[in-house]
Amino acid sequence: MIDDVTSTLKDVIENRSGFPAGWVEVTSLDSGTNLTVGKLHICLYAVEEHGHVRNAPLVSTPAGYERPPLGLVLSYVMTYTGEHLECQKRLARVAQVFHSTPRLGAADIDPALQPRIQQLTVRLLSPTPEERTGLWTAYGRDFRLSLYYGVETVPLPLLESAGIDRVREHRITYGEVRG
């Protein structure tokens, strides 16, 4: 499911950027991976639980109440490999695309995701210089001009449904306390 979100981001950028198709590539930041020159690289570097939906209430289902889907925030770095001025131009276009449409609805979302989610929210992140340097160092790469995005909420359904039945009766009994 996470790969479907990444695919959605790639498609949105390619379809709305105004640049010819094929200039966006999903890659890894791992030092053993070659970054193709002349491409925008979308790299997932972190997956976190979405803090605002962490304590969501139980969801009513035909089998009873069960835990709600797990909400995630996916963190991406997007960088362009090529001439520096072209890099600035391409990254500016990516920023324009997601600033214009920060919420991706059913028309934008990969068909594989549509039964599970209604929308994705894309937010520009502002990591500190230390966090950016740490990210590039951790992957064994030279620092590159990049954009950082968080994509919320990606609900992951439960693997096993263990519904908890509804309360059918409330009863309070009193007993005598001997002292």
Radius of gyration over C-alpha positions, nearest whole angstrom: 22 Å
CATH architecture: 2-Layer Sandwich
Q: What does the overall shape look like?
A: elongated
* Structural class by helix and strand composition: alpha+beta
* Main pleated sheet: 6 strands, mixed
Number of domains: 1
| Low-pLDDT ranges | none
What name does CATH use for the topology?
STM4215-like
Task: Tally the helices.
Answer: 3
Pfam family, one: Pvc16_N
Protein name: DUF4255 domain-containing protein
InterPro entries: Pvc16_N (IPR025351)
Domain Pvc16 N-terminal: 4-156
Task: Give structural notes.
By secondary structure, the chain is an alpha+beta fold. The protein has a six-stranded mixed beta sheet with strand order 1-2-5-8-7-6, covered by helices on one side. A two-stranded antiparallel sheet has the order 3-4. It has helices spanning 2-16, 84-100, 129-138; strands at 24-26, 40-49, 59-61, 64-66, 72-80, 103-104, 120-124, 146-152. The protein starts with a helix and ends in a 27-residue tail after the last strand. The longest helix is centred in the middle third of the chain and has 17 residues, at 84-100. It has a single domain (2-152), classed as 2-Layer Sandwich (STM4215-like), CATH 3.30.2000. 23% of the residues lie in helices and 23% in strands. It holds the Pfam family Pvc16_N.
